[in-house]
């Protein structure tokens, strides 16, 4: 009798279990869609920004340096997506053509920090002893100074110009890459395949290049994606302060600086360029976090 009751009750328990699994699967699908939707939007934003830098005439065929004085201070519209400035120049056209200088300086800065910081971290982690101590003390000094303040001091010493801004920002970011690379080298250098390479008579520099560097470099690349957004902010900040290229050549930071004098009457001159910079920075950091999570799995 008990067996009959159990057999009769068993089918009634299955739909609840199936329902729970279905709900859980639906939640997982929704979470996956939300996560990858943000990643897709970030990729589109970065792709558009790169397109602006590579082929600005495709996205904005007008002249960024000349305007129509009769059309000055026009609000955003279908004719002028970002409005016009005090000289009647189309702000969207100036943003598109300014992407080349801003993103080139950003990529240069990240490249300098990536190469120099990785080399210092690799040398420090592989050498150990007094070399490691000396390099890390220099890195600690760099980390103790706010990166924007250090970049400002360096660009003041180097002089004005987009190239000097890129160098200053790149030097200010070296310490972060050196620390991450050193920690990865310390993790990898005692791996069995590295010790086997040493035992087989492979020269130390060959071991570093063939075995240690490839297995320690992936987290550094993820850091580069995150630091790209930081570099965009730093380059735009120095350009805002007047250390970038000379007017009327457009740069993202200088466009915000030019519009701040008309903030009360023409809000779009500062708000819209600022929103573009925010979108690029957040997209780069979103992509960097995704790459970092992928590498740790």
UniProtKB/TrEMBL annotation:
Family matches, as Gene3D superfamilies: MetI-like
Domain of life, per lineage: Bacteria
Pfam families registered for this protein in UniProt: BPD_transp_1
Keywords in alphabetical order: Cell membrane, Membrane, Transmembrane, Transmembrane helix, Transport
UniProt-listed PROSITE patterns: ABC_TM1
Family in the record: Belongs to the binding-protein-dependent transport system permease family.
Name by which UniProt lists this protein: Peptide/nickel transport system permease protein
Organism of origin: Nocardia alba
Organism ancestry: Bacteria, Bacillati, Actinomycetota, Actinomycetes, Mycobacteriales
